[in-house]
Amino acid sequence: MNALKTTVESKRIDVCFARLQSEGRKGLIPYVTAGDPGPEATVPLLHAMVEAGADIIELGIPFSDPVADGPVIELAHQRAVSQGVTLADVLLMVAEFRKKDNVTPIALMGYLNPIEIMGYENFARRAAQAGVDALLAVDIPPEDAKTLLDPLYKEGLETVFLVSPNTVDERIESICSVAGGYIYYVSLKGVTGAGNLDISEVQSRVEHIKSFTSLPVCVGFGIRDGASASAISKTADAVIVGTALVKELATHENDHAAGCAAVAARLAEMRTAMDQ
């Protein structure tokens, strides 16, 4: 599978991290759920996040049972699902975003069920056509992923995998052997939005993961503000923030412009703190 990946032209994610490295900066990766708080709000939100300093965007695929997510993001999925947002709609949103931005990488993040319903080959083809760069399916282990990975690699899509605090070395090695784009290190045990960060422990773990791979290692879960983003970015190649942003959207559920502005302000604070 890795041999097939090398035949694909330079990818947006690779270009992004190469640029960040040349500038001596770290990546900022926001997560939002597609269709939350409303389908018409997503594309303008994506553009606003880029303007506020986002380097890569993780876009959640709405799902009825997001078991790996905490209550804040779970409610975002419910809001999107209740408005009928499907995987096909998410791909249309990415295609619309690409009309103005053909540079910023987009990784779809979600659960396997909607992709299985669409069909792996069909999904990979349509995702590539829309301008998707990567997929992170949180509920498929790399050992069972070949039937999904092969169509993705054929279409030039990367596959991002999670590594957790209690992932053993043998499994880290297995994950890194099939992963592409970047490694997502889950800095806390539990669902999204849970707990408080132990910065020194995260830094030690990131350095350990880097001994297994040349891929960028990005840290998510528990990053809420400029201070935590800055601290984590000293070791990680990028920081990933989701729950703090989705909270802003929920607070302004009935005013999409205000929600978009609040998310952009939170990201701009993090970007400034990370760059200082």
Description:
The protein has helices spanning 2-5, 12-23, 42-51, 71-82, 87-98, 112-118, 120-130, 146-154, 169-178, 199-210, 226-233, 243-251, 256-275, and strands at residues 27-33, 57-60, 106-110, 134-137, 158-159, 161-163, 183-186, 217-220, 238-241. β6, α9 and β7 (183-186) form a beta-alpha-beta unit. The protein is an alpha/beta fold and 276 residues long. Strands 5-4-3-2-1-9-8-7-6 form a nine-stranded parallel sheet. It has 13 helices and nine strands. The model is unreliable at 1-9 and 190-195 (pLDDT under 50). 49% of the residues lie in helices and 13% in strands. α12 packs antiparallel against α13.
Named at the architecture level, the CATH assignment is Alpha-Beta Barrel
Overall mean confidence score, pLDDT: 92
Q: Might you state the CATH topology name?
A: TIM Barrel
Number of strands: 9
Strand content: 5-15%
Radius of gyration: 17 Å
Strand arrangement in the largest pleated sheet:
5-4-3-2-1-9-8-7-6
Tell me the structural class.
alpha/beta
Assign the CATH superfamily: Aldolase class I
Report on the biggest sheet.
9 strands, parallel
Characteristics:
49% helix, 276 residues, disordered N terminus, nine-stranded parallel β-sheet
